[in-house]
Amino acid sequence: MIARTDLQALIDALADADYEVLGPTVRDGAIVYDGIARISELPAGWTDRQEAGRYRLERRDDAALFGFSVGPHSWKRFLHPPVETLWTARQGKDGIEVETPSEPTPKFAFIGVRACEVHAIAVQDRVFLEGPYIDRSYRLRRQDAFIVAVNCGQAGATCFCVSMQTGPKVESGFDLALTELLDAGRHEFLVEIGSDRGAELLAKTPHRPATDAELAAAEAVVARTAGQMGRRLETDGLKELLQGNLNHPRWDQVAERCLSCGNCTMVCPTCFCTTVEDHSDLAGESAARVRTWDSCFTLDFSYIHGGSVRKSARSRYRQWMTHKLASWIDQFGTSGCVGCGRCITWCPVGIDITEEAAALRAAPRAAKRETHGGN
Amino acid sequence: MASAETSAASLVDPFTPQIYRVGRVQRELSDTVTLALAPLSGARPAFDPGQFNMLYAFGVGEVAISMSGDRAVPDVFVHTVRDVGAVSGAIARLEAGATLGLRGPFGTGWPVAAAQGADVVIVAGGLGLAPLRPAIYEVLANRSRYGRVVILFGSRSPHDLLYRRELEQWRQRLDIDIAVTVDHADADWRGNVGVVPALIPRAPFDPHEAVALVCGPEVMMRFTIAALCDAGVRPDRIFLSMERNMKCAIGLCGHCQFGPAFVCKDGPVMRYDRIAGIFAAREI
Amino acid sequence: MEGIEQILRRHQFFADAGEEHLRLVAGCARNHRFDAGEYLCREGEPANEFFLIRHGKVALEMAAPGQSPITFATIGPGEIVGASWLIPPYRWNFDARAMELTRAIGIDAACLRGKCEADHDLGYEMMKRFLPVLVNRLHATRLQILDVYGKR
């Protein structure tokens, strides 16, 4: 157990060990992830009210430090940054010369990683670290990342981690996991140690063993959260349902609403698509290749030979949802969705992936292959 | 899956281009050239017919181009490039002595070794002959290990026949059957006029003993495969080379997805029966 | 010299045809030989025959003023030339020229049309065989028009 004020010692110990400490903070009407040095920067007493297409911050009637769900940021913006220079090049006297950047990789410490987010990081680990080619810069940032997880004290209206079996309790993949215990008499955190690194860090923080009552209280918090899930996604047979209904009329319906804005892909903690831009100066003497986040919703994502394979919004929404919930399983062995609900909250028109899946399930067509035919 | 021979290439950083120098430039068609590329340092990696490299034109960008040379000829990568955009145009205009960036080899190759003992039917459309040429070289180098060898090739017009002289040389061999057709004839053309699938019913191979390798525009591949299946070739013995938008070419950027497959690492050569469902679907 | 009926039986177009029908058709058939450059038919002329190609290659062409004729399709052994005989006003829509020595069986159109009117089973059999050929030709023509190898 550690007291609320001891959290500062935890943060200080991380900073002393040269970690760049990142955690939730209020900015621009949302709770985002940014550098933090003091616990006063945490969103004490704030919660979020989320619904499809809606996100508002509200004041709590207590001073909980982690009394909210997840905001528009996910930890992927640090492990898999939105913009990264891959290499630079110049025209040397004997031809092109290429240089890879050699900036030191920051050591991150993430404070307040939710169970769904721990799973999201694991999902991205599979994408970037377990394929035939490894993303070397992801690996550098990932291997030293220190994870201080937090078991959620409340679920949001768009949360469905229980359906995806990704929460609300953090089971593994963390260095330390905190459960906030806050009532009239106390404000403390149960700390679970998840790694040797975590144990070392806790050793530098004032702490005491937890009592059985405190363990029970922490379990009660998690159980209460599990019962508050705002959404549900039935995952049985979901992959076959999606892959067998490529021409379901529901895709046309969702296409009428979808703006192809790509918000869902930006806020999704597992979406990993990127594109590259090749820059050069006017004289044509130096060039650089920059990798940036991309979205399968953009029209030229699938561009070949003068046109895009997925021209219609319908095909692009179908691609995103089928990839996330079905193809991902073929590719990486797990679902790509962790039930965080961000895509539902941040969709400007409130498209709800759980509602779309339920609609497809309610009226599936027989797996009818649409073939190119006819005379 | 990249073969064991190409594992040496994966020791090289797959994100960063190696520098190659353009050697011989051969004009093939009005908009198509073949370049021989030699590495500035180190050996040219081994490759499988059907694989591709990402070629980088300084300051312009990268494009995926299949190998079209003989893998047994060391020291150079041979690439046939058609000018269809900013990057391919920049590469097609490179002169001998210029340098460019190259990442690769990437992707899956034609099942040339596995097809030994079978009749081999190679069906190419337009520029699709380029990714098939390394497979043709390898089959011809081991000719006695195969049954009938048939090459069916279709192009837009007689002016667009890629590798025409080589086709004529191959035709002079007594142990291959070659049929060429064009969509649009000119006054001097004495050959077949019509679409490639129409060549299949008359082609001299045993469909029950055949492995087919198909490459060309997707429309052409679709109807070619239908004709091959109608002729009795088994879907699990038909292989095609798919194409999708490529950025990283190593399965990390998501662009080349074709259903659950990444064309850059689960392809570009794919076995037809495994993708028949999504191949028939639109906008996948 | 093989019997015409034998030759017909072996031609792809009449594969699996019944003996009686083959006999009827053979009664309208005769052998042809075209040297390279000879025309099997000319656009606008009465379509008195259709041809089963046994050997050789035939170019289907259209002539336009001021230029050499353009070949839009080539037909080879096992295939047929001519469907205009089925449809009034029974006139050829193109020129068909032997590109090399070509042997063909010509089936007299009026003769076969008469037999088909008298025996609808034979008529239906002929339709069943012609329709796939025409559909495939239409399909191939569409693919040619699509210009799949052209730049977009």
What does the model show?
The complex is a heterotrimer of chains A (375), B (284) and C (152). Chain A has 375 residues and is α+β, with helices and mostly antiparallel strands. Chain A is 32% helix and 24% strand. Chain A folds into two domains: 2-226, no CATH class; 238-362, no CATH class. In chain A, the strands form four sheets. Chain A has a seven-stranded mixed β-sheet with strand order 1-11-10-9-8-2-3, with helices on both faces. Chain B has a seven-stranded mixed β-sheet, with helices on both faces. In chain B, strands 4-3-6-1-2-5 form a six-stranded antiparallel β-sheet. Chain B has a two-stranded antiparallel sheet with strand order 13-14. In chain B, strand 1 (18-29) and strand 2 (32-39) form a beta hairpin. The two termini of chain B are 22 Å apart. Chain C has a single domain (4-108, 118-140), classed as Jelly Rolls. Helices cover 34% and strands 30% of the residues of chain C. Chain C has helices at 4-10, 19-26, 109-118, 120-146; strands at 29-34, 39-41, 49-55, 58-64, 67-75, 80-81, 95-98, 102-108. In chain C, the strands form two sheets. Chain C has a four-stranded antiparallel β-sheet with strand order 1-8-3-6. A four-stranded antiparallel β-sheet of chain C has the order 2-7-4-5, with no helix packed on it. Chain C is globular, with a radius of gyration of 16 Å. Chains in contact: A-B, A-C, B-C. The interface between A and B is large, with 56 and 45 residues.
